[in-house]
Amino acid sequence: xxxxxxxxxxxxxxxxxxxxxxxxxxxxxxxxxxxxxxxxxxxxxxxxxxxxxxxxxxxxxxxxxxxxxxxxxxxxxxxxxxxxxxxxxxxxxxxxxxxxxxxxxxxxxxxxxxxxxxxxxxxxxxxxxxxxxxxxxxxxxxxxxxxxxxxxxxxxxxxxxxxxxxxxxxxxxxxxxxxxxxxxxxxxxxxxxxxxxxxxxxxxxxxxxxxxxxxxxxxxxxxxxxxxxxxxxxxxxxxxxxxxxxxxxxxxxxxxxx
Length: 258
Fold this sequence. Notes:
Blueprint: E1 13-17, H1 22-33, E2 37-42, H2 45-57, E3 62-66, H3 72-86, E4 91-94, H4 109-137, E5 140-145, H5 160-178, E6 183-190, E7 193-194, E8 216-217, H6 218-229, E9 240-243
Parallel strand pairs: 1-2, 1-4, 2-3, 4-5, 5-6, 6-9, 7-8
């Protein structure tokens, strides 16, 4: 495992939701390189356990909680198990989300209800539970994974973009209320990001439409999470930080950007 860039994070506890694969897995692995103790949480129990094996193979201290975090039962189970094992929660990364989008004029009530539960209620409840624990401990950090879709709409962006706009508003509101307890709350808005699950994302647009002329990587997102968790970001809260290669700075961003 590579050397830590933020030594103050060593032995702190990070809960990362949606961490069986993709961006969540990459975030958790980066935090593990900082010698944080990691709680991996995901609805996909089989993939979650396989991922945990790869963490243990590099010496990471990790536990897994397979859970559906769209409701209070799963959220309660996650935090009860995490606190039982590690005794503290210093960082919550709200990454779990359903990414599907739908043409607005076609009925999609089931998808709307599912995404409101998974993409909004779940992160809300997780943040609430984390904040209760962090308040007692004297502080902590929450990082919500949003999207450029929270500020610039995609084609067939609903209901996904709706939920990410809600995450952005929730981030700011929580930061204002929780700052008095030493709890910092920020969000990251990824742009077109390559993952094992989505290698083809962005192929139809070409990276020449991105100001930095390349697609994002999981490592780009994970590095920002590590910064926001660190003491270097001790005066950063209530911010939506776009890790998007400059997409949100343009008038006409790629319509398929995440």
